[in-house]
Amino acid sequence: MRSRIQLCGVAGALLFLVGCAAKPIVVPATSHQAVSVDQVKIYDAEPYKYEMLGNVELPMTPEMKFNAKGEYDPAMDALKAAAAAKGANGLLLKMDTSEINGLAGVQYHGKFYQVGARHTPDGKKILVGKAIYVVEETKK
Hints:
Number of helices: 2
Low-confidence stretches: 4-11, 13-19
Distance between the termini: 40 Å
Helix content: 10-25%
Mean pLDDT: 86
Number of domains: 1
Largest sheet: 7 strands, mixed
Radius of gyration: 19 Å
Shape: globular
Number of strands: 7
Structural class: alpha/beta
Oligomer: single chain
């Protein structure tokens, strides 16, 4: 009997914690001036509160290749630049599956990311991300 009460208590606590988890809030986008690329932070998950400024796309070219460390810096720098041009302070890599065909695993400055990718009818590969303006990274 005592173990059932303990189990119910633990289950109740877990449900409470899951129910209280902060869900991301997307607020209406406002106009932002372009920023420098170094002001754009990469997010592989949605921050707590942000504005969606639009998708950014990067057609892959032969010049965009892995460096000696296996990093894909030129492509990621170009995605960040496209986001910066929209006034974004963030590049969100999490994409809806309806917008992409798959994920490309890339390393950028020593960290591994999964970037949305899609193929055009003529076989070209395009990396896709979202330009966002982060209002709050985490719930306060």
